[in-house]
Amino acid sequence: MQSNDSDILTFQSCSGLDGRVYKIEIIKRNGQLVPLLTPSLTAYSEMGREEDDEIKAEKLFRQLSHNLTKVERRTWKKLLMEGNSIAKVAIEEGVSRNAVYERIRGNSKGQGGMIAKNDFVALWWLRRSLEEDENFD
User: Fold this and answer.
1) How far apart are the C-alpha atoms of 88 and 100, rounded to whole Å?
2) 85 or 132: which carries more pLDDT confidence?
Protein backbone atom coordinates (compact mmCIF):
# COMPACT_ATOMS: atom_id res chain seq x y z
CA MET A 1 0.00 0.00 0.00
CA GLN A 2 1.44 3.35 -0.98
CA SER A 3 1.04 6.13 1.56
CA ASN A 4 -0.37 8.60 -0.99
CA ASP A 5 -3.08 6.15 -2.15
CA SER A 6 -4.76 5.54 1.19
CA ASP A 7 -7.63 7.70 2.46
CA ILE A 8 -6.92 6.44 5.97
CA LEU A 9 -3.39 7.80 5.87
CA THR A 10 -4.49 11.07 4.25
CA PHE A 11 -7.37 11.88 6.62
CA GLN A 12 -6.06 9.97 9.65
CA SER A 13 -9.57 8.76 10.43
CA CYS A 14 -11.75 5.77 9.72
CA SER A 15 -15.24 4.49 10.40
CA GLY A 16 -15.63 1.91 13.15
CA LEU A 17 -18.04 -1.02 13.09
CA ASP A 18 -20.58 1.12 14.97
CA GLY A 19 -20.59 3.68 12.14
CA ARG A 20 -18.81 6.45 14.03
CA VAL A 21 -15.75 8.20 12.65
CA TYR A 22 -12.60 7.79 14.75
CA LYS A 23 -9.24 9.56 14.64
CA ILE A 24 -6.43 7.07 14.26
CA GLU A 25 -2.70 7.18 14.76
CA ILE A 26 -0.28 6.63 11.89
CA ILE A 27 2.87 4.68 12.68
CA LYS A 28 5.85 3.46 10.72
CA ARG A 29 6.18 -0.26 10.26
CA ASN A 30 9.09 -1.60 8.18
CA GLY A 31 9.65 1.89 6.85
CA GLN A 32 6.03 2.24 5.66
CA LEU A 33 3.32 4.47 7.11
CA VAL A 34 0.44 2.31 8.36
CA PRO A 35 -2.67 3.01 10.45
CA LEU A 36 -2.68 1.78 14.05
CA LEU A 37 -6.02 0.02 14.46
CA THR A 38 -6.92 -0.59 18.08
CA PRO A 39 -9.39 -3.20 19.37
CA SER A 40 -11.86 -0.41 20.21
CA LEU A 41 -12.17 0.27 16.47
CA THR A 42 -12.59 -3.33 15.46
CA ALA A 43 -14.98 -4.51 18.23
CA TYR A 44 -18.59 -3.40 18.34
CA SER A 45 -19.24 -1.68 21.64
CA GLU A 46 -22.41 -2.62 23.52
CA MET A 47 -22.15 0.62 25.50
CA GLY A 48 -22.18 2.69 22.33
CA ARG A 49 -25.16 0.79 20.98
CA GLU A 50 -27.19 1.40 24.16
CA GLU A 51 -26.40 5.12 23.98
CA ASP A 52 -27.40 5.16 20.30
CA ASP A 53 -30.67 3.43 21.13
CA GLU A 54 -31.44 6.03 23.80
CA ILE A 55 -30.67 8.85 21.37
CA LYS A 56 -32.89 7.23 18.71
CA ALA A 57 -35.72 6.77 21.24
CA GLU A 58 -35.54 10.42 22.29
CA LYS A 59 -35.50 11.55 18.66
CA LEU A 60 -38.49 9.35 17.89
CA PHE A 61 -40.34 10.69 20.94
CA ARG A 62 -39.74 14.28 19.77
CA GLN A 63 -41.34 13.35 16.44
CA LEU A 64 -44.26 11.62 18.15
CA SER A 65 -44.95 14.58 20.41
CA HIS A 66 -45.07 17.47 17.93
CA ASN A 67 -47.59 20.28 18.66
CA LEU A 68 -47.86 19.32 22.34
CA THR A 69 -47.19 21.65 25.25
CA LYS A 70 -44.57 20.86 27.90
CA VAL A 71 -47.19 19.42 30.28
CA GLU A 72 -48.79 17.38 27.48
CA ARG A 73 -45.37 16.03 26.39
CA ARG A 74 -44.66 14.99 29.98
CA THR A 75 -48.04 13.21 30.17
CA TRP A 76 -47.53 11.60 26.74
CA LYS A 77 -44.07 10.36 27.74
CA LYS A 78 -45.42 8.77 30.91
CA LEU A 79 -48.21 7.07 28.98
CA LEU A 80 -46.28 6.02 25.89
CA MET A 81 -42.65 5.49 26.88
CA GLU A 82 -43.06 4.47 30.51
CA GLY A 83 -46.32 2.57 30.03
CA ASN A 84 -48.06 4.21 32.99
CA SER A 85 -51.82 4.15 33.38
CA ILE A 86 -53.87 7.34 33.35
CA ALA A 87 -54.60 6.84 37.06
CA LYS A 88 -50.88 6.58 37.86
CA VAL A 89 -50.11 9.71 35.80
CA ALA A 90 -52.83 11.57 37.71
CA ILE A 91 -51.37 10.52 41.07
CA GLU A 92 -47.81 11.47 40.03
CA GLU A 93 -48.93 14.90 38.84
CA GLY A 94 -51.26 15.54 41.77
CA VAL A 95 -54.42 15.97 39.66
CA SER A 96 -57.60 13.97 39.21
CA ARG A 97 -57.98 11.22 36.61
CA ASN A 98 -60.63 13.39 35.00
CA ALA A 99 -58.09 16.20 34.55
CA VAL A 100 -55.75 13.84 32.69
CA TYR A 101 -58.64 12.55 30.55
CA GLU A 102 -59.56 16.14 29.66
CA ARG A 103 -55.93 16.90 28.87
CA ILE A 104 -55.97 14.02 26.39
CA ARG A 105 -59.52 14.28 24.94
CA GLY A 106 -60.29 17.95 25.42
CA ASN A 107 -63.21 19.32 27.40
CA SER A 108 -66.87 20.14 26.91
CA LYS A 109 -66.00 23.78 26.18
CA GLY A 110 -64.54 22.74 22.86
CA GLN A 111 -60.94 23.13 23.92
CA GLY A 112 -59.23 20.36 21.99
CA GLY A 113 -56.91 18.13 23.89
CA MET A 114 -53.85 16.23 22.86
CA ILE A 115 -55.80 14.10 20.36
CA ALA A 116 -56.82 17.23 18.43
CA LYS A 117 -53.21 18.47 18.28
CA ASN A 118 -51.32 15.28 17.51
CA ASP A 119 -52.26 12.43 15.16
CA PHE A 120 -50.12 9.91 17.07
CA VAL A 121 -51.99 10.61 20.30
CA ALA A 122 -55.28 10.30 18.41
CA LEU A 123 -54.24 6.87 17.05
CA TRP A 124 -53.10 5.75 20.49
CA TRP A 125 -56.40 6.91 22.01
CA LEU A 126 -58.46 5.15 19.33
CA ARG A 127 -56.54 1.88 19.79
CA ARG A 128 -56.87 2.17 23.56
CA SER A 129 -60.62 2.76 23.24
CA LEU A 130 -61.04 -0.24 20.94
CA GLU A 131 -59.11 -2.47 23.35
CA GLU A 132 -61.35 -1.37 26.21
CA ASP A 133 -64.45 -2.19 24.13
CA GLU A 134 -63.10 -5.68 23.42
CA ASN A 135 -62.46 -6.27 27.12
CA PHE A 136 -66.11 -5.53 27.96
CA ASP A 137 -67.44 -8.17 25.52
Assistant:
1) 10
2) 85
